[in-house]
Automatic annotation (TrEMBL):
TPR repeat intervals: 2-35, 36-69
The organism's taxonomic lineage, starting at the top: Eukaryota, Viridiplantae, Streptophyta, Embryophyta, Tracheophyta
Record-stated family: Belongs to the SGT1 family.
UniProt cross-references to PROSITE patterns, sorted A to Z: CS, SGS, TPR
Organism: Camelina sativa
Pfam families: CS, SGS, TPR_8
SUPFAM superfamilies: HSP20-like chaperones, TPR-like
Ranges for domain SGS: 266-356
Keywords per UniProt: TPR repeat
Listed InterPro entries: CS_dom, HSP20-like_chaperone, SGS_dom, Sgt1-like, TPR-like_helical_dom_sf, TPR_rpt
Underlying gene: LOC104731113
UniProt-annotated stretches for the region Disordered: 337-356
Protein name: Protein SGT1 homolog A isoform X1
Start and end residues of each CS domain: 155-244
Length: 356
């Protein structure tokens, strides 16, 4: 029965009815979940539907079931290239080429991967650190590019959340009591693929394109009795505003400086700078507008005369003021310049010293 469904799926694929092909292959897989060919062929149908993430997941499953199935490596490499995850694609293609060295398709695609990787390295604004490990045995999946992959075949039935540290992101899937053998997790350059496939139940998929790049070799996961905990090693020390790509701006880490300097850099306008010229002008205006009485008013009157006087007038005022002991204030230099001013006030006049 499963074989008949697979044959019908191939006919639908030839007729460009890719949705029908996926549905028929899925039914065949339900009947025979250990057939690697069914997964590899469904991966090809997913590629035609531009569902590259699902294609990679199926190719990985086919490779797990039959590590010598060359078309599974070809499907995986093709899907990864469509998603511009060329290093992951190259790893899969090289593995397939080692199994089928006479197949020219592998060499052609590997050469294209090399070209794309070179171009990518030239265009990178912030290149991935040179210590980033590349392992031919590391599990790999593709990253989603311009358009998000279509929704997972089944409605998600497990909640997930994440938190992060400077060097890693921790994703938790709240799946309780799931056997480890029913959990398939793969890491790519910028994608996480979580598949929980329990016999008799609909499969669960969590396959986001991640906000930032990760280091697959340093990523790990643990299946616990109440949850699945996944640790993603960041390739760059930046803060992810979201788990998925394209949902927020990059946040650079805060510089490690003293609190005083940090506050000064982070809040340059938190303390207002005084405008001393403006303050002086306000004081002068207040002094000018101030209404004084008695001696204070007279002193201000003399100061105003002195500040607006020319050089001869100031000399006359200073000389007359000093020589008369503060009782005479003249503004005529010709009058006071050659004679001494008497300091004795007239009878009945109180002696006052005016300030100028």
């Amino acid at each position: 029965m499963a074989k008949e469904l697979a044959d019908k799926a191939k006919e639908a694929f030839i007729d460009d009815e890719f949705d029908v092909a996926v549905d028929l292959y899925s039914k065949a897989i339900d009947l025979d979940p250990n057939c690697a060919d069914f997964f590899a062929d469904r991966a090809q149908s997913y590629i035609k539907l531009l569902s590259f993430t699902e294609a990679v997941a199926d190719a990985n499953k086919a490779i797990e079931l039959d590590p010598s199935l060359t078309k599974a490596y070809l499907r995986k490499g093709t899907a990864c290239m469509k998603l511009e995850e060329y290093r992951t694609a190259k790893t899969a293609l090289e593995k397939g080429a080692s199994i089928a060295p006479s197949d020219s398709k592998f060499k052609k695609l590997i050469d294209e991967c090399d070209l794309r990787i070179t171009e990518e390295e030239k265009d990178l604004v912030q290149p991935v650190p040179s210590t980033l490990p590349l392992s031919s045995t590391a599990p790999s999946v593709s990253e989603l590019d311009l358009t998000p992959a279509p929704a997972a075949p089944a409605k998600p039935k497990y909640m997930h959340e994440y938190y992060q540290k400077p060097e890693e992101v921790v994703v938790t899937v709240f799946a309780k009591g799931i056997p480890k053998q029913n959990v398939n997790i793969d890491f790519g350059e910028q994608i996480l693929s979580v598949v929980i496939d329990v016999p008799g139940e609909e499969a669960y998929y969590l396959q986001p394109r991640l906000f930032g790049k990760i280091i697959p070799d340093k990523c790990k996961y643990e299946v616990l009795s109440t949850k699945i905990e996944i640790r993603l090693a960041k390739a760059d020390i930046i803060t992810w505003p979201s788990l998925e790509h394209g949902k927020g701006p990059v946040v650079l880490p805060k510089p490690n400086v003293s609190s005083e300097v940090s506050q000064r850099l982070a809040y340059p306008s938190s303390k207002k700078v005084k405008d001393w010229d403006k303050l002086e002008a306000e004081v002068k205006k207040q002094e000018k507008d101030e209404k004084l009485e008695g001696d204070a008013a007279l002193n201000k009157f003399f100061r105003d005369i002195y500040s607006n006087a020319d050089e001869d007038m100031r000399r006359a005022m200073s000389k007359s003021f000093v020589e008369s002991n503060g009782t005479v204030l003249s503004t005529n230099w010709q009058e006071v310049g050659t004679k001494k001013i008497e300091s004795t006030p007239p009878d009945g006049m109180e002696l006052k010293k005016w300030e100028i």
